[in-house]
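User: Hey, my collaborator sent me this sequence without any context and asked if I could get a structure. I don't really work with proteins. Can you help?
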Amino acid sequence: MADSAGKEQGGEWFGRLVTGDHRAFAEFVDKYKESVFLCCRTLGLRNDEAEDVAGETFLAAYKALSRYKGQAELSTWLWRIAYHKGISFIRKKGRRIELLTEFSERFVDEKNGRPGAGIEAEEQAEVVWTAVKCLPRLWAVAVVLFYRQGKSVKEIAGIMRKRENTIKTYLFRARKELKKILVGILGEDIDVV
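Assistant: No problem. I've predicted the 3D structure and written it out in structure-token form, which is a compact way to encode the shape of the chain:
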């Protein structure tokens, strides 16, 4: 997935952004806010927590823009900041998130109590992405970056500060675990990502 902002590193917009132009920064925030929130939600943060971390992320990015070298796409660079701000927030709060129970309850048919009953084909994508939240955080982040953000294994390794083989292992284990979760929830075998 190409990052037009990254290509504009030498362009007028990026130049205005680096020099602190408030309109350029507003465009930057508008362009990348969904991506930053996706990172925060993937880490298991609630909406209010995600807003706090997103604010910290954009503030840190604003302060660091003059040091951005363009070695990675701008979106990859920003994901890295969001990821580390989110992990830092979670460590400060010292909280564990149990999503599997919440996920299971959401997809139980109220009439007959069967998991997965009533889920139509168009909802399967939503079910899969909700199931991703049940994975260990590092696996979930790797899956979202790879499948939703279109990042390469190399880019993900840079964002997460892990080796490429570690990222490949996360993706392999995540697919395997997702299949187990979805079979348990939907009661049927489906192809995962």
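In plain terms: The two ends are 18 Å apart (CA to CA). You can pass these tokens on to your collaborator as they are.
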